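Listing S7. Sequence submitted for prediction.
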Amino acid sequence: MRPVTRALPATIAAALLCTVLTGCGPKDTEPAAAPPTIKAAGTITVDLPHFAWNPGEGCWGREDHEQLRAGATVTVHDNTGTTVGMGKLAEGTVTMQPDGEKAQNCTFAFEVGDVPAGRKFYSIEVVGEERVQVSEGDLGRVRLRLG
């Protein structure tokens, strides 16, 4: 029978420590490249009478669109319905009628970054509104209008 030495556990521990701390084990290959992403961006415009506003305070939705306001959630879904990104509406800006005395519409901008590319079709959903389908090519320039 062979005698067991006490140095064996210390040798194993030293080898593991060397591998973990200094990488003296097998070399890893290059890290995998992150999958490509795109940005969803655009605007949502609400026409009278579905918004309210005060000079200097921006505008916000009302009646059927009361959930439209700065900070409302914008969700991007891929072609399988999976949520692939979320963002927020920016503060609404008012467009005045040509006479300059009455408001014509209220527009909210949004951006959702790091949306996985290559899904062909996506849908945009603003809290409380119906999803709208857009192609990947149009995802960076979405223009929605609500009456």
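Caption to Listing S7: primary sequence and predicted structure tokens for the chain studied. Helices lie at 7-22. The chain has a mean pLDDT of 85.
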